[in-house]
Every structure is written in C-alpha cells, then in structure tokens.
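Handout, page 2. Input:
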Amino acid sequence: MTNLLKVDSLCCFAVPEAHGGSGQLDVVVTRGRHRWRHGHGSKDVLEEVAAMALVDETCIPCRDGGPTLEMEELDELLPELPGWRLVEGHHLSKELEFPDFASALSWLNSAGAVCEEQGHHADFRVGWGYVGIEVFTHKAGGVTRADVVLAAKLDALPLNAPSQA
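Output:
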C-alpha cells in the first residue's frame, strides 16, 4: 500500500549540498514549513530536509509555471519578506527608494543579474529615486515558490550599491 502525502506545493529546486541536497536537481515537496526532497541518489523515499531560509534556496522554475501557493502558505512566508505586499492574491509588490536615478539604476542592474542567474524574472519600473518590483509567475497566473525565493534574493541586494558611471 502506498502512503500519499497531501502537499501544499511541488517544485523543482537545486538544493545546495550544505543544506542536505545533492547540489543537482531535486524535487522538493512542501507542506507548511516542512520540506521533503527526492533527488539524485535517492530511492523511492522522500527524505525530510531541514527548512532553510528562502534566500538560500535556488529555484528552477517549472516549465509549465508550477502550482501557485495557497493563501495559508503565503501568510506564512510573507513575514520573511519585509516590505513586500501581496496584491489581489496574484503578485508580490515592493517599492524601493533611492537618493537619485543613478543609484536606482545601479540597484536595478544588480537585480537583473540575480534574475538572470535564477532564470526567473521580475517586472520592474524605474525612475528618479525609485524602483518598483512586481513578482509572479505568468504561466501559473499567480505567486509560486520561485517568486518568494526571488523576492528574498532581491531583498538581499544592498540598497547602497555604488553607481556605475
């Protein structure tokens, strides 16, 4: 008889070896704050792994968009994303302030590099002294785990990065 696990989300992650992963593509199942993985070298069993900070995860967005997060899981994850708002249950949004346009543009260039590295891209607005960010998975039509991981990685960028002249 097979035991079935009711899950909140299922996504593909590259879990770093330092956090109990293989460093290669793993399937990660979440239910609340518990995560299990099935990856390279694993048999037909899910191994529970310790919860890690969102910023330490590397999400490989599922090609079909992946499942959107339920409101319960978003309510649990949003406290880890200070300043981010959930808008209409559809996307994450944040506004950043900078002393001038060059500083905003410099930060945006760093954010773009993070998006490229993650293979997941936010929508940005930039102007004198501000950058607006919206994050959601277009194919899924809402917020996925990849989006909260990307938001955490953008939060980790310093706001006072030197301007590139």
